[in-house]
Amino acid sequence: MRKAYTNKKTGKIQDPFITDVIELVQTKIAELLASQPMNSDDDSTAASSNLCRLQINEMMEQTVPKKNGRLVGLVRCASSCPSSSLTPYIDSMIIEQLQKKDERIEALKTHNATILAELADQKKTNNEIIDKMKRLFPDEF
Hints:
mainly alpha; 60% helix
């Protein structure tokens, strides 16, 4: 958010509201990092890496006010941006294709069951014919 709202010429954020939001989020991050136990060999950069993108996104969602159902200053909701380390990206087109394949699999299972039932009937009929043949021509069987 800082990068998106920073003026390239002056290097400063011109919108005071956005500046306040960024400072508030940074304060919350600092408080969270201060509350986490730190090992003696950790430094501040190692501690900041303990916060995952999902936690930072959740802080942004809680901090940034909503207007007309959207987070002010953000292009899209932070939770809709998948974190590569925690949340897998789910594409609706892939989900639709998987559902179609599942339906196709179920249809094939039903078709296979029908074919197996027909084969069982055919086997029964064949066995009946063989039994009749054995009765009619006992010497040849």
